[in-house]
Each structure stands twice: as C-alpha cells, then as structure tokens.
C-alpha cells in the first residue's frame, strides 16, 4: 500500500514538474540556439564580404587593364612595336599579380592576337605561331553579344587541358569583355582566366574559425564549391552526381534554393544559409560595394555566380551547450526527482529563468557590441562639429590610437592635409544631402603611416530637425589605390632604365610645350645616343649593353632638375626636355652631361669596366615651332650632325 501511494505520488509530482519545466526548457533551448546563431553571423558576414570584395577587386583590375594605353594603342593602330608593348604589359600584370592563369586579346573574329600564360609564377608570352582560333568558345560568343563596357563572367569550375581535368585542380572563373579602340569601334575581346583557389582558401580559413569548423559554399545546382569534406567538392566537373548537397539534403535544398537567406531546423540540427551574389554590388549592405560596376554585368554572369553559403550546426553541438547535458544539471534533476519538492522546484525554475534571460540579454548585447567593434570595416559617429563621439575597435586598430585618445577629437586631425579640404566639403554637403557615399580620404596613423579609405555617411537630426550626428562607415581600400598606382607605373616607366618611357615623355613634354608657347618662356630639347653602341653589345654581350644603358640613365637623371623631363626614346636613344632655360644654360647643361658620361666608368656583370661617349643634338624652341614633333625632329637632325662631325660632341640645330 505504501509502495503504491509512493508510486502514485511520485508519478503525479513528476508529471507536475514535467508540465511546469518543459515549456521553460524549450524556451531556454530556443534562446541557446539563438545565441549560437548570433555568434555565427560574424562568420557569415565576414565570408560574404570577403568573396564580394575579392570579386570587386578583380572587376576593378579588369577594367583598368581594358582601358590601359598599351591595349588601346595596339587595337587602334596594330603596329609591331605596339604589339611588343602589349605583350610586355600583359606579362608584367600576370607576373606581378598572380591572379590570372591566362590573359588574352582576341580579334573580332575570335582569333588570339596576344596571349600570356602564368607558369611558375611568371607571365610567359605565347609565340604567335601557337596562337589559336577561339571563335567557338563560349566566353567569346557570349562577349560578342555584350553591349560596350559590359562584362561576362563564367560559372566557377575546374580547368581542363586537352579534354582532361588539370591536376592539381585549378578552380577557374573566366571574364570576357569587348574592347573598343580609341575611335570607339569594337576591336576585339579581352579574356582573363581568374585563379579562384586563393579565394576558396580564404573562405575555408574563415569557416575553420567557427565552433565546429564546418561551412559550405554551394553553386545554384547544389554542387559543393567548398566543403569541410574535400572529397565532396566539384561533383559536377568530376562526374560525381551523388556528391551534391541537393541529393544529401533534398528537403533542405528545396528551401535554400528558393530563398536568399534563412534558418532551417531539422532533426539533425540547424542550417543557416545566405545567398552570395558576388557581382550584385547594388544589393550589398556596405557602401563600399555600391553599384558603380553592377550595370556592367550581363544577366547570365549574375546567374553563373549565384552561390549559397551554408553553415550546419548539429544538434549534438547545441545540446553540449545545454545546462541539462552538464554534470551539474543532471545532478540537479536527480536531486529534484528524489526530493519531489514541487513548490521549491517551481521557485528555483522561475529564478533560473529570470537569470537565464538576463544572461541571454547580456550575451546578446555583448554579441552586438562585438559585431560593431570587430566588424571588417570601420565605424564612427561625429557630432555637429565633426568631433568623434563613437568609434569601433577596427578603426582604432587601423589608426593605432586608444579610444580615449580619439573621442572628443576633430576627425580632420586624423587626415592628411590633402584630404582635410575634401572632408570639409564632404561634411558640409552631408548636412543638406543627408547621405553621401564612397568619398576617398587618406587617413593618418599614430605612427605616421597613412592608408586610404572609402567613406560613406548618413546624417541624423535632433528633435528640432537640426543636424546632430553623422554616422559613418569606412573601408580600407589601400590595396586598390596601390594597385592603381602600380599599374600606372607599369604603363609609364621604362622597365630597364627605370625612367620615363616614350609615351610618358610625350604626355609631359606636350604640357610643357603648351605652357612655354602660352607664356613665351624658353624651352629646349636634348636628344642623345651612345656612340658605337653596337660595338658595346658585340664586345660585352646584351647583359653588358643593358648595364651600360642603366648606368647612363642613372648618371644623366641625377644631373637634371626635378622639372626636366627625361625619357628613354628607343634602343640606346634618350631625350631630355628642359623648360625655363636660356640658350647659354642649355649649352652648359649639354656639355656637362657629355663630359660626365665620358668620365663614367661603368661596372659590367662580367666584372670588367667600360667607357662610353655620347653625341648630343640640341634644339631651342622658336616662334615657328608649334608642334612637339617639329622640335624633336630638329633635335634629331642636330644629333645626326654631331654623329657626322665625329661623335662625342654637342651640336645645336641651325637651319
């Protein structure tokens, strides 16, 4: 009888406890899931922005290559020396950036005009005899249908050579875009094969920082582009139809493929997914990726790169964080069942519930604060006087200051002088326009270093409607700016002598000539070359000849003024433009250069030394000279006369 009552009471009390505690535990379990998912958002945002930033940089680089002077010069005129310059330019881009497996220029019929392959980290120019007809390849036929300045992007797949998947695997994206000549006419197609392995490695590295180190990148058909189980990748290319997310989780895939983002709960765990459209910059949440390039993409390109980022959180991981799966929780359950103290248990559960909610709120606030402080971009807020009132840790790390050193200080104090004026204009305009995006500024670090940022701001008004706060996001775009400067250097500087090339000379000299003609200032041109340079090459070889050219250029450059324009004109021929100089001074400068070169002892790679002389032709600007070519021709004639008169001398042009 006692046993029966005990069993009945135990059963009733157990049922009562279960009825009271189950909803509480369900709510706690849901909160636990929410916290884990909140922590995962950092990985989702960071991976999405990393992929989009990488693609943004490639598009920017492709646009600069397509508009580069060597490309435009060759497709407009098609001369042999311009072809050589274009091959050199493609080779330099391939060698310096290691991003493209192939860079090709095709004519309007699909035949390769120039091709450079990346082999052993070096851009190798393919001989003309090996160039091929690519008129039937999809990247050419797609590009033919594009409007001017549009860009086609292929799907991401494994590269094939001679009909076979290349080993080791090379994940590849192919970009193609029409090329216009300087007259605005279609002149061909630029094709670049982008090596995507670096981007995928960065994605896997980002996913490895998660709690279970599992994260997936999936294409629109459900095939894995990246998976923590590497053997599951590239099922479409390797003929493994069973290696797809769509086949492994068909019900989950139907929801993921139909939505841009969301959370799906299954009996195995939670799936957090997010669409990644790397070329849909107009839909990005950060102003740095706003759609200055988006309209340039063909619709097929966006469809080809419709990817999904999927993070799986197994139930075992969630349960391992649950209080009831910890030793203390299990002991508490055992104690409650033994004591059967329903009222006390209810009080304890209510208290624990309040504490849990407080902890959840605190943890949520910490997560939000961590997301703000450690975002991949900088955030700050300025008051109406443009002084800092808030700044995140990312931007503080860039600047090298503590929060106390920055708050209350004027933002302009952390800018270089050139950017201070630009910021003041930007800040004044913000008060009326309410939102301004993508303003490039140069910021000054505590240690004196500088970096470039793209800044976007939104104005906030007070209750009276007056401007009160500017909330600003900044993205570090130093790599992009340095990339632009590096490409400019490649296009303007002679690779051997490290002085201006012929094209850059014409740009600078043309401006100086217009200035001299407008203000009637004196100006002169010196043209000189090395006497008997063929004999130097025959005696010391081409390595010796290169050493002579480099040391000659260095000696002459160090003897000129900053405002003088000095360039290699071709082969062993050099040219100097001297503005603001009298005929008497020109004669002294030319003779001084001739003597310095004659006294120069040139160290050769073989260990020997060599001496050279130069012949110099001088032409002064006269009222009859209206074109730069006329002045250069006069200097060239004077140089010819110097050669005829025995070399190693200075001759001024005399009609």
Task: Annotate the secondary structure layout.
Blueprint: H1 2-66, H2 69-77, H3 80-97, E1 100-106, E2 112-119, E3 122-125, H4 138-144, E4 152-153, E5 157-158, E6 160-161, E7 164-165, E8 171-180, E9 186-195, H5 197-207, E10 216-218, E11 224-226, H6 235-238, H7 245-248, H8 250-258, E12 261-265, E13 269-276, H9 299-304, E14 307-314, H10 315-320, H11 327-339, H12 342-373, E15 378-383, E16 388-391, H13 393-399, H14 403-406, H15 417-433, E17 435-444, E18 450-461, E19 467-476, H16 478-492, H17 502-519, E20 523-530, H18 533-558, E21 565-570, E22 573-579, H19 583-599, E23 602-603, E24 609-610, E25 614-620, H20 628-644, E26 650-652
Helix pairs in contact: 1-5, 1-12, 1-16, 2-3
Overall 3D form: elongated
Number of helices: 20
Name of the CATH architecture of the largest domain: 2-Layer Sandwich
- Structural class computed from helices and strand pairing: alpha+beta
| Gap from first CA to last CA | 136 Å
Radius of gyration: 35 Å
Helix content percent band: 40-55%
What do we call the CATH homologous superfamily of the largest domain?
Answer: Reverse transcriptase/Diguanylate cyclase domain
Mean pLDDT: 85
The fraction of residues assigned to DSSP E strands is 15-25%
Number of strands: 26
Which CATH first-tier class of the largest domain would you pick?
Alpha Beta
Major beta sheet, specifics? 7 strands, antiparallel
Taken together, the total number of domains comes to 4
Q: Uncertain regions: pLDDT < 50 for 5+ in a row?
A: 285-291
